[in-house]
Amino acid sequence: MKFLSFVLTLVIIVGAGYYIYNNPSIITEDIPNLIEKFTSTKNPELSGFMKDNGGKLISFKDNDIILIKFEYPSLIGMQKAVYDTSIKGYDMYSRPLRVEGYYFDEPVLALETNNPNDENDLFFEDIRDPEFMIESDIGIFDVLVDEVKIVKNDAFIKLEYYGSENDFADDLAGIYFMIIQDVPWLETITINYVKSGMCFTVKTTSENVLQYYNDEISAESYMNNLVIEGCKADGIKEEVVLDGTCSTDQDTSYLQYVKAYNGLTDLMAKGKGDTPEALEADGLYRFYKECYEASIVDGVIIDDSGTDDNEPAIAVGMVCSDNSTQAYADYMAAYNKLTYLMQRGEGDSQQGKLAYPPYKFYKDCWEDFGIEI
User: What pTM value is reported for the model?
Assistant: First the structure.
């Protein structure tokens, strides 16, 4: 047995060495990820199934319990994607299995079951990292989350608040309570709030929040236990103005597009999508979207310094599919990545700007099929 283990280890090392020799750039990768490539079993049938359903197989391991990891381009529909994958895996192997769904690099949802056809044997598990869980869940409030950091038992959060002053106290309590529900072992929570270029820090203990929600202390005592201080609003960008004109500066044009987009989606999230205010916001969104698209000339992106770096917007691998299903999947993946960054408040970042040309490219690819949906 020891000899067999030694031989197996030697085979893996030799295989990894051969791979590194033929792929010199691999030396920058994490070694565990490299070993994963040699110990994970490839599965063309599952890969094809995931591709047909808009996902991508990350890893497959044929153990006593089958382990399937896949990436899905949207949080909406993740539970169905995990369940459908478990059905496919069980049809192939008829063995207990665990399926894990990822959104980009973030683990989201797992299903462990002996037989997914038995509705009493479906055990779903929230596998989000605590930071991503907090970021996702407090997004239901009028905030854009810039950063979430957990150090031991303390959470540090930076966010921009877009609600009204009248709602702030209730939103504040709601945000704290949701954070504690997500990560119950936290002892303190510190939040940097930014609003209209102003910044202040509010710190509290989990005990203070829980006592308030359990009616053990009054609202006045709860507020008195908050530590509120001023803070420096680092990284706050100059506010762009939606004045109805297209900017000649590409960066400003993009910021106007993001602001118009946020204004429209904020109204829709509040159930005001059919109001005259929303109609006006939709007009602004369409106008500034066209302004930004017009600023991308001949497929060339202008860098931050304002000089042409001759880097084509259509990067290597961006090719229109001749299959309508794949073209739509490409379009949705690019759309979801762009909107994901915008929802995180990163629409005006360099990553956000680089996500836009692929979205427009794949959108045009899909629209060329002329299919109404």
Answer: 0.50
